[in-house]
Amino acid sequence: MVIVLAVGFPLAIILSWLYDLTSEGVEKTKPLSEIQEGGKPAVPNAWKIATYVSFVVIIGLVVLNLTGGIKEAQAGSIQSLVVLPFDNFTGDEELEYFVSGMHASLIGDMGKIGGLRI
What we know:
Keywords: Membrane, Transmembrane, Transmembrane helix. It is built from four helices and two strands. The protein is mainly alpha-helical. It folds into two domains: 2-67, no CATH class; 75-118, no CATH class. A two-stranded antiparallel ribbon has the order 1-2. The longest helix has 23 residues, at 45-67. The chain is elongated and about 75 Å long. The two termini are 41 Å apart.
């Protein structure tokens, strides 16, 4: 599926660049010299730059994905975990019990996960 998209997307871009879909059907795109009036560019330079940068980023991500540059973590690679105590940043001493209770609850709930040492 990825290969079909990798081949089909550039093909669709090229065909859409060369041909226009109008109410009369498919027509070859007219040159800019026929469309422009008064010497103004038909497309602002900012759009051209954004388009080129987008193409470079897309091609880079496709190449990175196809070459396996991004590795995923293996499912069983974590065997132990340390849960550090929470700090009470509220400034209210009455909430200290809540902070320590959340820490104990987190350790207790994570301890129920099989194969994981807390």
